[in-house]
């Protein structure tokens, strides 16, 4: 099989890791890297740093990874589609729903693989969580709650916390539950003096009736990445910062302490922490993207899925602005 000729556009905080993973993949060739701001993380290792997407296309690539700021996704993706280059765009797909729609249509009309870099889908804890849920491990699912909190990343200046961070939780929630969003209500705040929101709380309902809550901000002095799924048999808790997955089982024996038994809906049971093979999620994401190109695989996050996530994210912002729930 002929190796894919891969180019990486953007050599910043995410782009440098894309370059490293492409370079370490023996099944593809890294033939072009580009960034108009140069190579501040010194990842070139002797390669010429091109000035932009046009030069990268001229280098003869047939697959690309776009890791530039969100506001530049639309222009770069359309040029790559026109050039017949399979492309993975870092999340979110584009800066607006209109731009995202244009990108999706361009790649579908060209018959190209278009992917979005929702790397959390490749986190070992969430991969195992989804597998267990697909096998009815928890029985009926009642609720999914996520927390994604951390200090402000100075590299982000073109979007707020909803499009940069909460978009991960929207995508992974619909994915692990196997159901799209039906409605959402959200509130945001602007506490740090920047143009965009830095805190959001959102509650939602999925089409399958599962209740959802998201707590996301850039104002917490520690990193918190949790996804909790509660169901009939207990709760699965994924700490995606550490790639740990724990099962809290409902107790099988009635509590003898009457006051506590009356307060709790279930009793406490066995706690199990799963032993997982922990591979770098970004490497797994690359494998899914390249497999889709070479073998017709379907494990990547398609641009069409990325567009659906954008619809929910836009609804979150509309709800926060209007103060009312938004139906999807």
TrEMBL record:
Domain Gfo/Idh/MocA-like oxidoreductase N-terminal residue range list: 4-118
Source organism of the structure: Gleimia hominis
Pfam families named in the record: GFO_IDH_MocA, GFO_IDH_MocA_C3
Residue ranges of domain GFO/IDH/MocA-like oxidoreductase in the record: 127-236
InterPro entries given in the database record: Gfo/Idh/MocA-like_OxRdtase_N (IPR000683), Gfo/Idh/MocA_Oxidoreductases (IPR051450), GFO_IDH_MocA-like_dom (IPR055170), NAD(P)-bd_dom_sf (IPR036291)
Name of the featured protein: Gfo/Idh/MocA family oxidoreductase
């Amino acid at each position: 099989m002929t190796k894919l000729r891969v180019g990486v556009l953007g050599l910043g905080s995410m782009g440098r890791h894309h370059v490293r993973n492409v370079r370490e993949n023996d099944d593809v060739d890294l033939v072009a890297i580009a960034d108009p701001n140069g190579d501040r993380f010194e990842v070139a290792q002797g390669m010429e740093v091109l000035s932009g997407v046009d030069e990268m296309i001229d280098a003869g690539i047939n697959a690309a990874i776009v890791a530039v700021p969100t506001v530049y996704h639309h222009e770069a993706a359309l040029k790559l589609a026109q050039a017949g280059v399979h492309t993975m765009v870092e999340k979110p797909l584009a800066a607006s729903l209109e731009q995202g729609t244009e990108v999706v249509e361009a790649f579908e009309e060209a018959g190209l693989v278009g992917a979005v870099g929702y790397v959390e889908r490749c986190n070992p804890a969430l991969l195992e969580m989804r597998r267990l849920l697909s096998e009815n491990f928890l029985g009926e699912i009642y609720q999914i709650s996520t927390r994604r909190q951390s200090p402000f990343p100075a590299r982000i200046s073109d979007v707020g916390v909803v499009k940069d961070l909460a978009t991960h939780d929207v995508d992974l929630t619909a994915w692990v539950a196997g159901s799209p969003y039906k409605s959402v209500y959200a509130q945001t705040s602007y506490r740090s003096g920047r143009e965009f929101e830095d805190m959001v709380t959102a509650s939602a309902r999925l089409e399958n009736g599962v209740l959802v809550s998201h707590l996301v901000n850039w104002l917490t002095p520690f990193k918190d990445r949790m996804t909790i799924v509660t169901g009939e048999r207990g709760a699965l808790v994924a700490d995606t910062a550490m790639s740990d997955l724990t099962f809290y089982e409902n107790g099988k024996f009635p509590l003898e302490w009457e006051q506590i038994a009356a307060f709790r809906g279930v009793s406490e049971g066995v706690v199990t922490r799963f032993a997982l093979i922990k591979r770098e999620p970004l490497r797994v994401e690359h494998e899914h993207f390249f497999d889709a190109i070479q073998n017709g695989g379907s494990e990547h996050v398609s641009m069409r899925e990325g567009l659906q996530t954008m619809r929910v994210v836009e609804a979150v912002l509309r709800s926060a602005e209007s103060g009312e729930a938004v139906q999807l």
